[in-house]
Amino acid sequence: MKVSIPYIQNYVRKRLFLGLLGGSLLLVGLFAFALWYIIFYPGQSLMNQSLVLALVLLLSVTVVLAAMGLAGILLTLLASKRLSFLQGPMRVGVNIFFPVIIGLGKLFKIDVDRIKRSFIEVNNQMVRASVFRLAPEQLLVLVPHCLQNTECPHKITVKIDNCRRCGKCCIGNLLALRDRCGVRMGVATGGTLARKLIKDYRPRAVVAVACERDLTSGIQDSNPLPVLGVTNERPFGPCQNTFIDTGRVEDALKFFLAREGGR
Ligand code: SF4
């Protein structure tokens, strides 16, 4: 079987996040175990013992739920099938443990963007494990303001159709894609506006273009709304004249709109 380079890269990316999640579970589990040991340390008052016991129980329940979540993520990725009954634990695993995952990654001097890219990869494959047959108007595409050419005088954040499609940035091509597919599209300058657009349009799924940082927080904020994340390219550094290959956005749209769930 011929295995392509992007496939291997995606696999390595996913493995990073899942490995760190497993490591975080172990760390918090060990912490709970250490607290458990303290409870029986001689000289502890009953009050102290009760408080620590409550904390140990809370941590233990969280770790068990997150461990089930990790198992759920692995099974979803392996079987490419949505496991409804493990959605709750998966959310616990990803959302509650995310700060621990980032902290652990920093401890091992792993680039935060790399961890977030890995998370986005895991999220995307989990979304792709479900089958969608959405009408175009049920789908919202969110794109960042930084895709717009910095010298463009048109205010596309107010209304994306203010773009004159001059070709100096990729907004024009994105609009052509929007028109061709019949989906909705909005420009978000940050999380607050993205949340507002989601509230206004009430989509059944979102295709979001952004940097690793914004995509990660957006995916977590929107949970349980399915979001396929597409990271933008930043040839001039962050937040200015960034770029997205519309083919990658189209691929994400086709997945949600395809009759057979894009598979
Ligand atoms: S395509 Fe042209 S008009 Fe549209 S946002 Fe980009 S620079 Fe402005």
Summarize this structure as a short list of keywords or feature phrases.
single chain; 263 residues; alpha/beta; Rossmann fold; 2 domains; 8 helices; elongated; binds iron/sulfur cluster
Largest sheet: 4 strands, parallel
User: Helicity level, as a percent range?
Assistant: 55-70%
Unique bound compounds: iron/sulfur cluster
> What fraction of residues sit in β-strands?
5-15%
The SSE string, one letter per element, is HHHHEHEHEHEH
Number of helices: 8
State the separation between the terminal residues, measured CA to CA.
Answer: 20 Å
Strand order of the largest sheet: 2-1-3-4
**How many beta strands in the DSSP annotation?**
4
Q: Please, how many domains?
A: 2
Taking all residues together, what is the mean pLDDT? 87
Shape: elongated
Structural class determined from secondary elements: alpha/beta
**Uncertain residue ranges:** none
Q: Mind telling me the C-alpha Rg?
A: 21 Å
Short characterization:
With 263 residues, the protein is an alpha/beta fold.
Descriptive overview:
With 263 residues, this protein is of the alpha/beta class. The protein folds into two domains: 5-128; 136-257, Rossmann fold (3-Layer(aba) Sandwich), CATH 3.40.50. Helix content is 58%, strand content 8%. It contains eight helices and four strands. The protein has helices at 5-39, 46-79, 87-107, 112-128, 171-181, 191-201, 212-222, 246-257, and strands at residues 139-144, 184-188, 205-210, 227-231. It has a four-stranded parallel sheet, with helices on both faces. Helix 1 (5-39) crosses helix 4 (112-128). It is elongated, with a radius of gyration of 21 Å. The model has no long low-confidence stretch (mean pLDDT 87). Iron/sulfur cluster binds next to helix 5. Residues 148-149, 152, 154, 156, 163-166, 168-169, 171-172 line the site of iron/sulfur cluster (SF4).
